[in-house]
Design brief:
Layout: E1 4-10, H1 17-33, E2 42-47, H2 54-64, E3 68-73, H3 79-90, E4 96-99, H4 110-119, E5 124-129, H5 137-152, E6 161-168, H6 169-175, H7 185-192, E7 196-201, H8 215-229, H9 232-260, H10 268-301, E8 308-312
Parallel strand pairs: 1-2, 1-4, 2-3, 5-7
Antiparallel strand pairs: 3-8, 4-6, 5-6
């Protein structure tokens, strides 16, 4: 009977936290009564610089019931950094950890299946959506395109998996060896290795509040994932450059042939279109390369990925940056 910690990043979640805490507490108590997890299991909320009453609610929950713990980051660090802060904080105390979102879209009933898989010897158990019935057509198409694009560009992820997963203690320890500043945990966790499996579940609609991933942020997240995990876009640019070079040779030969056969015609339109096309490709190529250079720049600075301002746990201690 292992000690389970649930890590839940929170950003402006005051509307959903009371319900989330109630449901997760009931599930933890149910699993304890079944003897599947230790009575010392905990739920850790990570406040990612929320501007509402999120931290006050977390503090009140901790005072009412020790099963709830809280990590307060010094400022908004982003979802992936907040999640990592929670995982790295609890890795020394748990036998296994489950990460999930605070909006109740992840089916908490899948937790028991994850624990059963863990007890069967799996170090990583991914929560994967069985279908997208609750999504709008636009959301469904963009989400599926996201995973296919990631796969096509060499960023290996688990299809239809977000950040709902179980990781054993040794998997968390292995994850701590990854020092990237530009985090994309959906791609990094599969690199950890160890024995893994999948649990399927149906994702519900958000209980309350607004989605923290509008289209603009989803696109940014996709770019972050691709450029953090794969160099394939740069290789594609190289291939495109070679292709354009050979096309230019053919155009040169064609132009000479037209010239010597006396069929020279002023090709203003063709020239303008060529200049704009090549110019556009050059700008796109520079932009892609710039993304990688920017990430190299941030990695060399080696800035902390998160800074913990305060911690509400069994030991009631403050913790510095990690």
């Amino acid at each position: 009977m292992g000690k389970l910690y649930c890590v839940i990043p929170c950003y402006n979640e005051q509307e959903v936290l009371p319900e989330t805490s109630s449901r997760i507490r009931e599930k933890i108590e149910e699993l304890i009564s079944k003897g599947k997890i230790s009575p010392e299991s905990r739920v850790v909320f990570v406040n990612d610089g929320s501007k509402d009453e999120t931290w006050n609610i977390i503090s009140a929950l901790h005072e009412e019931n020790p099963v709830f713990q809280g990590i307060n980051l010094s400022k908004n660090m982003g979802h992936q950094n907040a999640l990592l802060a929670g995982l790295m904080t609890v890795k020394d105390y748990c036998d296994a950890c489950i990460s999930m979102d605070a909006d109740l879209q992840d089916d908490i009933n899948a937790i028991e299946q994850m624990i059963d898989k863990f007890n069967d010897g799996f170090d990583v158990v991914y929560g994967v959506r069985s279908k997208r019935a609750t999504d709008t057509f636009f959301k469904r198409v963009t989400a599926e395109s996201f995973y296919k694009l990631m796969e096509g560009l060499g960023a290996k992820t688990v299809y239809n998996h977000a950040d709902y997963r179980l990781m054993s203690k040794r998997a968390l320890m292995a994850l701590s060896e990854f020092g990237e500043v530009n985090l994309f945990l959906r791609g990094i966790v599969p690199m950890v290795g160890f024995k893994s499996d999948i649990v399927y579940y149906e994702r519900a609609e958000r209980f309350a509040g607004e989605s923290k991933y509008p289209l603009k942020k989803m696109i940014s997240f996709a770019v972050q994932g691709i450029t953090s995990l794969s160099t394939k876009p740069i290789k594609m640019i190289t291939g495109l450059g070679v292709l354009i070079f050979f096309v230019s040779i053919l155009v040169f030969i064609y132009s000479l042939a037209r010239y010597f056969t006396g069929h020279t015609v002023a090709g203003w339109t063709t020239t303008v279109l060529s200049v704009w096309a090549i110019g556009g490709l050059i700008m796109i190529s520079l932009g892609v390369i710039g993304e990688y250079i920017g990430k190299i720049y941030l990695e060399t600075k080696n800035r902390p990925r998160y800074i913990i301002e305060s911690y509400l746990g069994d030991e009631e201690e403050n913790r510095g940056d990690l």
